Amino acid sequence: MSYFVPTRFVWRFGGRQVHLCGSFTRWVETVPMAPVDGTPGVFAVVVHLPPGYHQYKFIVDGKWRHDETAPFMPDPLGNVNNWLFVRRIDPTPTPVATSSSGSSRTGGPNPAATSHHSNGRIARSCGEYTRKKISDFLHAHTAYELIPESGKVVVLDLDLPVRQAFHALHEQGTASAPLWDAVDRCIPGVISASDFISILRRLRHSVSSGANPMSEAEMDAHTIRGLREEAAAEGREPKRLVYVLPDEDLAKVVARLAANKCSMAPVLSGDPGGAEPPHVLHLATLSGVLACLMRHFRASLASLPLLSQPLGSLPLGTWSPDAAPLHTVTASTSLTTALALLLEAGVSALPVVDEKRCLVDVYARSQITDLCKGGAYNRLQWEDVTVAASNSAATGGSLSSQLGARVWVVTKDDTLRTVVERLAVPGVRRLVVVHPETRRVEGIISLSDVAQYLFL
């Protein structure tokens, strides 16, 4: 049974003919508004709307107008629309209050006394409505929609020497890839930036304990398979394969990535273990899901009202109740210390700050493959390379040439929509929140933070 709430719209800014148009008329039909008796220039109409979020606009003497005194927001096409959230009316009878003179009147809220609580309820309603819309989208769309019409997927052979795998990932511009076992004809797992960090830390520890540094020829004797078998023998079982199927909905994709703390999962043509080995069709990522979401709502982002909220008002990232402490390093911090902190703190990136805690750069796990340049990973066995030197080597000595691509920033005044749009850009996995004037680091927002807040 449908439920509608009588909702009154008022235009107070003059005109000869005024019509109302909005999402509830599919932006096609218009509703004529009548002049209000005794109030020149004011027009009103009552429309019965279903509970939920609605956008609307006025057509005054043939021109589109919006009410600047009511809530409004821009859409991706540059239009500005008013919006409102219609709540279901509580059927409980309104209590009757007695005035000081003894007469009775219908009880009603005191606007001054309840404005704070009303704003809080509206904010919660916007959040609930937005999450419901996003949840409906995630359940209605599948991983198949993440697969581009054309593209490439990097898959590494399990018997490839680790050093060559390191270089291959760097040349392909990625920090992780699925593995292919040609012996068992299966996909046993994924090699990631964390695996390379662990390998380099072990080499460093070995040399510090008195062993000789490995030459490139000696490194080539160690294959990915050999390292996985060695780890298993030491009780460090390699992570099991986390994958998704094309016909699984995006809600399952997001939940699986979050539950396994994965940055990506291969999209396979079928379940492993079948008669024929599955093909790797694509790599599913949280960034890909966000991009899919933004494409779907690109013409109606205003229908997700939570995205209009400023970042500083939301329990997101560094400001979420269960957030871990914000870890930072300086340009002079040794790279081995930074790599250890990345693994031990369980974070994907570390802001690089100066003595005033102002943002200078960022060092992320995915940058580990940059050590391929000039064989820097070989020197790391015995030399204390700093974070600044590593980043400088990665950019060919010019920090500014890559800094803009590596460091994405926002402020607490930016909206959640800005955060989502930037994180939907391929390769962007986190945003550093800085003070707009001093660039002092105030927090960090990652893809997993946004997924936890909006999707789960």
Describe the structure.
- This protein has 456 residues and is α+β, with helices and mostly antiparallel strands.
- The chain folds into 3 domains: 86 residues, Immunoglobulin-like, CATH 2.60.40; 149 residues, CBS-domain, CATH 3.10.580; 155 residues, Roll (CBS-domain).
- The protein has 13 helices and 22 strands.
- The strands form 7 sheets. Strands 2, 3, 6, 7, 8 and 9 form a 6-stranded antiparallel β-sheet that branches. Strands 1-5-4 form a 3-stranded antiparallel β-sheet, with no helix packed on it. The protein has a 3-stranded mixed β-sheet with strand order 12-13-14.
- Helix 3 crosses helix 8.
- About 8% of the residues have low confidence.
List the helices and strands and how they pair.
Elements lengths: L4 E7 L6 E5 L8 E2 L1 E2 L7 E7 L2 E9 L2 E3 L6 E3 L5 E7 L9 E3 L5 E3 L4 H30 L15 E2 L4 H11 L4 E4 L9 E2 L1 H16 L7 H4 L4 H10 L16 H10 L4 E5 L11 E6 H11 L32 E2 L4 H11 L3 E5 L5 E6 L11 H4 L7 H8 L4 H8 L2 E2 L5 H8 L6 E5 L6 E6 H8 L2
Parallel strand pairs: 12-13, 17-18, 20-21
Antiparallel strand pairs: 1-5, 2-3, 2-6, 4-5, 6-7, 6-9, 8-9, 10-11, 13-14, 15-16, 18-19, 21-22
| Overall residue-averaged pLDDT value | 82
Instruction: Supply the CATH superfamily name of the largest domain.
Output: CBS-domain
The largest pleated sheet is described as:
6 strands, antiparallel
Classify the fold: give the CATH topology of the largest domain: CBS-domain
Total DSSP helices? 13
Between the first and last Cα atoms, what is the distance in angstroms? Answer: 29 Å
Task: Give me the CATH architecture of the largest domain, please.
Answer: Roll
Oligomer: single chain
Radius of gyration: 28 Å
Shape: elongated
* Poorly predicted tracts of residues: 92-120, 397-404
Tell me the fraction of residues in β-strands, as a range: 15-25%
Q: What's the level 1 CATH class of the largest domain?
A: Alpha Beta
Helix content: 25-40%
Domain CBS: 146-207, 319-380, 399-456
Region (Disordered): 94-122
InterPro entries: AMPK1_CBM, AMPK_gamma/SDS23_families, CBS_dom, CBS_dom_sf, Ig-like_fold, Ig_E-set
Biased composition (Low complexity): 95-111
